[in-house]
Specification:
By secondary structure, the chain is of the alpha+beta class. It is built from 10 helices and 5 strands. It folds into 2 domains: 166 residues, Muramoyl-pentapeptide Carboxypeptidase, domain 2, CATH 3.30.1380.10; 70 residues, no CATH class. Helix 8 packs across helix 9.
Length: 258
């Protein structure tokens, strides 16, 4: 399902929340927003830097203030207090409401949106609160460089070399999926035209009564990729060629059917 919200609209929803993050974490948050969007899953960062007073207010919730307990961390004991952690939610198509439904599949690709975001976050280098052994925090990601909150409270920070290396790694990242995946180069278009011409020639000779069982899935993928109108009445060589192309990933790479 295509995104109804533009990427700029989605980015704007989180701009204020990520502004207070440290440089590397802010870049990593921007990438997560972009990469999730490329997967068809708009998200919003609901929390970035959190002050000590804000943290103490959250800690009091469910203890000395009404509400449910949402954190075990007092002020200064959360990575949010040092600008190295974020929380997120799924941004719904109306661009206003959000969801924490971990089973939601808004883009209809058969994979829970939440799982897609977590996979992209881990690829970027975020650590996920859902992997914790206790008090799992499923909307939470952090990038701490191996420092504890005690280290941060004591004034320790990652070295400049660590920060530079992380930033260089982030600058080199590209999304697994992009809106330009269906665009071919001039050379690719010429190659596909030659293949299509070859397919037409093969179709006209040595036609088989039905699609061989070993070529059925390849023909399905080729049709889904828009390279075949019909798989019927093909020759043995035709089905062999389609199967070879499918196994080479041609239909999945350009047709998005893999």
């Amino acid at each position: 399902m295509a995104n109804k919200l533009t990427l700029d609209q989605v980015r704007a929803k989180s701009a204020n929340r990520i502004a207070g993050l440290s440089d590397v974490q802010r870049k990593a948050a921007e990438l997560l927003i972009d990469f999730a969007y490329a997967c068809g899953v708009p998200i919003v960062i609901t929390q970035g830097l959190r002050t000590i007073d804000e943290q103490n207010g959250l800690y009091a919730q469910g203890r000395t203030k009404p509400g449910q307990i949402v954190t075990n961390a007092r002020g200064g004991y959360s990575y949010h207090n040092f600008g190295v952690a974020i929380d997120f939610a799924l941004l719904l198509p109306d661009g206003k409401n959000v969801s924490w439904d971990m089973q939601r599949d808004g883009d209809g690709d058969g994979i829970a949106d939440w799982d897609e975001v977590v996979a992209e976050a881990k690829r970027i280098g975020w650590n996920w609160g859902g992997d914790w052994r206790s008090f799992r925090d499923y909307p939470h990601f952090e990038m701490t460089f191996g420092l504890s909150t005690a280290d941060y409270r004591a004034g320790k920070r990652p070295s400049q070399a660590q920060l530079n290396a992380s930033m260089a790694k982030l600058d080199a990242f590209k999304p697994n999926k992009t809106e330009d995946d269906d665009e071919m180069t001039t050379e690719e278009k010429a190659a596909f035209k030659a293949l299509q011409d070859r397919v037409v020639a093969l179709e006209s000779t040595n036609k088989l009564a039905k699609v061989p069982a070993w070529a059925e899935q390849a023909c399905i993928n080729a049709k889904a990729a828009g390279l075949l109108d019909t798989a019927n009445d093909g020759s043995y060589d035709f089905y062999r060629l389609v199967t070879i192309l499918d196994r080479a990933g041609v239909f999945g790479a350009k047709g998005g059917v893999a």
